[in-house]
Design goal:
It is a single chain. By secondary structure, the chain is mainly α. The chain has 2 domains: about 110 residues; about 120 residues, Up-down Bundle (Four Helix Bundle (Hemerythrin (Met), subunit A)). It has a two-stranded antiparallel sheet. Helix 6 runs antiparallel to helix 7 and helix 9 crosses helix 10. The longest helix is centred in the last third of the chain and has 33 residues. The protein is elongated. Bound molecules: heme C (HEC) (3 copies). One heme C binds next to helix 6 and helix 10.
Length: about 280
């Protein structure tokens, strides 16, 4: 136990700067300026902000690597690119002007020209700190806001044939899953069989919506709702018929993991996070 204070201290030192700000038992995240929106789809044709970021990282890496190799021409080329892209940050989002230090770029250039690698490395680090500071304040929320898929305007066919919202389809899926489990436990074969058929139909209708986002790509649907899943539902049907409760429950567990949880892991987590952080 005598190590605890050391670990705690280390945790505080390492944790500072990467963690969101904690006040008591609440967490505060900064909402990005609204002007950022125009650099993302659908307001823009491309994810302009994000691609500027990818370039910035490449430029920082190139400068660092050429500095180690003492390749002046290489450094010069990439410093001038970094200068352009770094200043775009404030051009795109003027509210973020105070987050960057453009004066460091001419210094970087000077140290490169003089071949003063230690001071160049130090300046590069100072630039990197401006990247890190902004990221720890804003990055997760921006990703959730502008890069997580939206399900609000997707309609799915309901069991009665009428269109329903994605969320209502989810509620109904959940009802069917639980109805099957209740009926299995209480020995109501016909109810279990009917709920199983409903679940199959509901998933079929949900599957019709995959290509709203996965255009010309059959693989995502195949992975969640393909051959393996259909086979499980067939086996479930005959298990219920034969009154094999344990086997049926086991199959339901497999379906919940391979269909529901597998899809939720990519699709639901970010969507729930965004809805929790930004209730409209
Ligand atoms: C597209 C892949 C996908 C599949 C497959 C899927 N879900 Fe979902 N589910 C989502 C997404 C996305 C959300 C959050 C969006 C929403 O609530 O509209 C969600 C939300 C939910 C919710 C919360 C609904 C609410 O009221 O907010 C429940 C319950 C649910 N799913 C149950 C299930 C069950 C049970 C299955 C399996 C039989 C399943 N889901 C399969 C994507 C999926
Ligand atoms: C004023 C704020 C700000 C500054 C300064 C900034 N960034 Fe970013 N950066 C962001 C935001 C916001 C995101 C999240 C974008 C998203 O997820 O769509 C991001 C994301 C990134 C990503 C993408 C991470 C990923 O894999 O999804 C990279 C790489 C990146 N930044 C590099 C840099 C570098 C290198 C610098 C410094 C030279 C820098 N950024 C400076 C705000 C900033
Ligand atoms: C609102 C948009 C949207 C809808 C609707 C949607 N997805 Fe996705 N899905 C995404 C995004 C975004 C990703 C992550 C990027 C990628 O892999 O394309 C993703 C990733 C996936 C992945 C992981 C990547 C892979 O190819 O293995 C699977 C599996 C998947 N989706 C299955 C489905 C299924 C099944 C449906 C329909 C039931 C569905 N998706 C409906 C947006 C959507």
């Amino acid at each position: 136990m005598k190590f605890t204070p050391v670990f705690l201290l280390l945790y505080l030192i390492i944790g500072a700067g990467i963690m969101p700000v904690y006040a008591g038992d609440s967490v505060s995240l900064d909402v990005p300026p609204a002007s950022l929106e125009e650099w993302y789809k659908p307001a823009n044709k491309r994810q302009v902000w994000l691609h500027t970021m990818f370039r910035l990282r490449r430029e920082m890496q190139a400068i660092g690597e050429y500095a180690e190799q003492k390749d002046q021409a290489g450094m010069k080329k990439w410093i001038s690119r970094l200068e352009k892209d770094y200043s775009k940050i404030a051009d795109m989002v003027p509210e973020w002007e105070k987050e960057i230090k453009p004066r460091l770029l001419p210094e970087l250039e000077m140290f490169a020209e003089k071949g003063d690698t230690p001071r160049l490395a130090k300046t590069l680090k100072m630039i990197q700190r401006t990247c890190d500071d902004c990221h720890s304040d804003y990055q997760p929320l921006v990703t959730a806001m502008y890069r997580s898929p939206h399900y609000e305007d997707i309609k799915v066919k309901g069991l009665n044939g009428a269109p329903q919202s994605f969320t209502d389809n989810m509620e109904n899926l959940s009802d069917s899953v639980n109805r099957i489990l209740i009926a299995l436990e209480d020995g109501h074969k016909a109810v279990a069989q009917q709920a199983r058929q409903n679940l199959v139909d509901q998933l079929q209708h949900l599957g019709d919506s995959c290509n709203r986002c996965h255009k010309d790509d059959k693989y995502p649907r195949e992975r969640i709702l393909g051959e393996e899943t259909q086979q499980r539902f067939k086996t479930l049907q005959s298990n219920i018929d034969k009154g094999q409760v344990k086997d049926s429950q086991k199959l339901m567990g497999e379906i919940a993991v391979t269909v529901c949880a597998r899809c939720h892991n990519t699709h639901r987590i970010v969507s729930d996070l965004r809805n929790a952080l930004l209730p409209d």
